[in-house]
Design goal:
Immunoglobulin-like, six-stranded mixed beta sheet, three-stranded antiparallel beta sheet
């Protein structure tokens, strides 16, 4: 009975490192959205309605020490009656790989307010847009600085 063992040579290790480096060089970089991608995403969600500034308040930390769990609250000034209410709130982050963070849909009861946590990969603007029952749209935005290990990012 014979056993055959193969030894790892320096040549094999260097070839493996070279192949890994070549794969990393041609691998696609992690894409990030930008303002135009966020605008396109919102245009689809809003059916082409152009949002105006006002009526929407977005509460975010100015500096997020951990981009994995960034809390936010969106509030819309609306009576929430059959005649006038918020139909939807859409939140987008301009620098994430996919700009759409969340969409919330409402009926004419209660209060137009949502709270959640989101993940932000880097310092960027976050926008909240409210689509109203009369077909208008209102927005607010805020920049969030995401730090990495306590350093500005």
């Amino acid at each position: 009975m014979s056993t055959k063992t193969s030894a790892v040579t320096r040549r094999t290790v260097l070839a493996g490192i070279g192949a890994g480096a070549a794969a990393m060089a041609v691998a696609p970089k992690l894409a990030h959205a930008d303002k135009a991608a966020a605008d396109d995403s919102l245009a689809k969600l809003l059916g082409g309605v152009k949002p105006h500034d006002g009526k929407v308040k977005i509460k975010l930390p100015q500096i997020a020490e951990n981009g994995n769990t960034v809390p936010f609250t969106v509030t819309v000034d609306s009576p929430m009656t059959e005649a006038s209410y918020v139909k939807a709130i859409h939140v987008v982050a301009e620098g994430n790989p996919t700009p759409g963070v969340a969409s919330f849909y409402f009926t004419p009861t209660g209060k137009a307010e949502v709270s959640m946590r989101m993940r932000l990969g880097k310092t960027q603007d976050v926008r909240a847009v409210a689509l109203m029952s009369d077909g208008t749209a209102w927005q607010a935005s805020q920049e969030v600085k995401v730090t990495i290990g306590g350093c500005g990012g």
